[in-house]
Amino acid sequence: MSLAEQVVGDIFAGVFRAPAEECIADWASRNVYLDEKMAARPGFYNPEVTPWCREFMEIPRQLGTWKAVAMKDNQSGFTEAALNVLRWMPENMPGNALYCINSREKAKRVSKVRLRKTLTVAAAGQLTENPDDFSTYSINLTNMEITVSGSGSIGAFVEAWYRLAILDECELHEEEDGTTTIEKAESRFKTVADATLLAMSKPEVEGGVIHREFVAGTQEEWEVPCPRCGEYQRIEFEWLRFNHCKDLAEGWDLARVEEETWLECRHCGGRIEERDKASMNAAGRWKAREKGERMKLPDGRPVPPDPGVRSFHISALYSMFPNATWGKIAKKWLLAFVVEPNERAQRDVQNNDFGLPWKETRAEITSEAIQNLRGGIVEERDGRRVVLGQEFGLVYEPHGVGRSELVGELPFRPLVMSVTVDQQEHTYVYLVFAWDRRWNSWLVDYGDLPDAEAVIDLRARPYPVRGEREPALLYGGLADCGDRKNEVVRMCLKAQSVGFDLHPSRGHGFLPDSRGTNIRIRPDYLDGQNYLIYDFWNHGLESDFYLGKIGRRSEPRLWLPTPIPERIVKEWTSTKLVAVTVGGRRVQKWIHDGRKYGPNDLGDCAKQQLLVPQLLMPVLGPGDGPGAEKPENG
Q1: Tens digit of each residue's pLDDT (9 = 90 or more) over 369-417
Q2: What are the domain boundaries of the chain?
Q3: For residues 218 and 247, what is the distance between their CA atoms, to the nearest angstrom?
Q4: What is the predicted pLDDT for the residue at 622?
Q5: Per-residue pLDDT reduced to its tens digit, 185-202
Q6: 16: helix, coil or strand?
Q7: What pLDDT, on the 0 to 100 scale, is given for residue 584?
Q8: Which long-range contacts (CB under 8 A, 24 or more apart) does 462-465 make?
Q9: Which terminus of the chain is less hemmed in, N or C, by CB atoms within 10 Å?
Q10: How many CB atoms lie within 10 A of CB 61?
């Protein structure tokens, strides 16, 4: 569309614009019908479900505001709100527009399912007679063009001007030479006086794209009034109350947490129930953070608000959807941080429920931290000497590749015994854990084996149990495929054929469809046989192992033998957590300098052992077992 055509279109478009007093949200409630593919409950767009989006939709009509940023939870309604602006524009404020999301496939789905259907009604008067003008990635109307794109498409940001650019899930957008899609979109605004940029995303880590953009804006938070005293406040997790759902003997009653969690008013101390949410949200308002409480960048630098930029933050604690009640969120938080701590689940809560970035952690594993995992060590606590766990030693001690000596016994009958294997160029490194009924893990055997047959022979290795005649045997475990997948899979299939439950596993940088957990099980096929492969999230497992089991001594405990083998200490202390920039995005990464420190095969084996409770606890269940703390001599 030429500039002359745009000017003419603007003149005539004024005749069709909605009355100034009608907000876009109300217009959408009359003109945007969401069918069963677009919404859980089909019907006209209902602005009362996500009332915080009303203000966001008005940004293109607000003088002095050219950019709005939403740092949000995973079901806040901002995507639909932005699409409503697109649907509203053809008959009210036409001008070229861009919708960009983090993948071409997602862009295709948004266009076909959510945009084109609704435009045939909302922009019926601007449709052309040429069916080619209404394609998936380019929608040509009589008075404007809409481009739908994945973030990797260069063409969307070249030789095009936009009155409106919508960047959805911009935290995950591909970057080119360190340039974000937000910066690319801004470059297309230079000749357009009334252009508007709407950017929204769930955050990932502090210092990420959406966090930086939020920090640089007005930093507005949604506030709601207490139904008791009327005072406005933010709904924050620290004000949820569910401690009454904990039994001193049995622990957390998660069913009660889900049903009985309530919110305490920070002003009057009154009890606010889930059913009060709707009326509170209906009276909600956006309010900028005060100067003294503004978020800062990771380096601690305060950033003043950029003129013309409004930034919003919303969490699922305001959501009125049935899967986001305060009780459900509290239960999810407990599972992630208290009951079964793991970083992937914790980040899921922080990013997807609270709509907040994950705080970067830098860490190095010390020899002292590893020594503190020995069973039977004594510590001072509240003036008393307390014995942690019980002392034990290795059951088998390695003496070279394929040679192990029986040197001890298990201090208890384990619930299950598991092995994890890491294939090297000429050998297989293995690690054996004994699990008690509380799912504490006890390292009892490790070493190197020459070939796959030797690994399979571990199934018959006897582990003597103190005071019992019958030894314990290995149940099974996981073998990391590494770069030689077929060899490992064949070894596992042969092991399974003789009753040894050994499965192939493989580490990944990201598991997109395993939210809240570190593992995904999928079927595969080799040599005419079907099998299961256990994919795991490398970073999440490493964080749970090094930060959780070693750094915080998280429950269930990891217990190490006395003395701890020097090889284990050397390998585990050679790995550290750093913050790096990958593709323009700040991420945390565990690094190991093999040339400087040698291998960390036993660390790779140990982190995979953390998958065993995830796999077997639903089958075997929790229970009592050894490993409790007790006063010395008592």
Answers
A1: 999 999 999 988 888 899 999 999 999 999 999 999 999 999 999 999 9
A2: 3-219+289-314, 363-631
A3: 44
A4: 62
A5: 887 776 677 899 999 999
A6: helix
A7: 52
A8: 463/395, 463/409, 463/410, 463/417, 463/432, 463/434, 464/395, 464/406, 464/408, 464/409, 464/410, 465/409, 465/410, 465/412, 465/413
A9: C
A10: 18
In the three-class reduction of DSSP (H, G, I as helix; E, B as strand; rest coil), residue 31 is classed as helix
Place of tokens 């008959």: 91
Domain 363-631 architecture: 2-Layer Sandwich (3.30)
Whether pLDDT at 275 is above 80? yes
DSSP letter assigned to residue 352: I
Contact 204, 212 (CB under 8 A): no
Topology classification of domain 3-219+289-314: Rossmann fold (3.40.50)
Is residue 459 predicted with pLDDT exceeding 60?
yes
Radius of gyration over every alpha carbon of the chain, rounded to an integer in angstroms: 29
pLDDT over 50 at 634, yes or no = no
DSSP state at residue 290: P
Backbone angle region of 230, left / alpha / beta, with phi > 0 → left and psi within -120 to 50 → alpha: left
What would the mean pLDDT of 455-472 be, rounded to a whole number?
97
Cβ(354)–Cβ(365) below 8 Å: no
Place of tokens 């790779």: 604
Per residue in 36-70, pLDDT (tens digit) is 888 878 999 999 999 999 999 999 999 999 999 99
CB 434 within 8 A of CB 444: yes
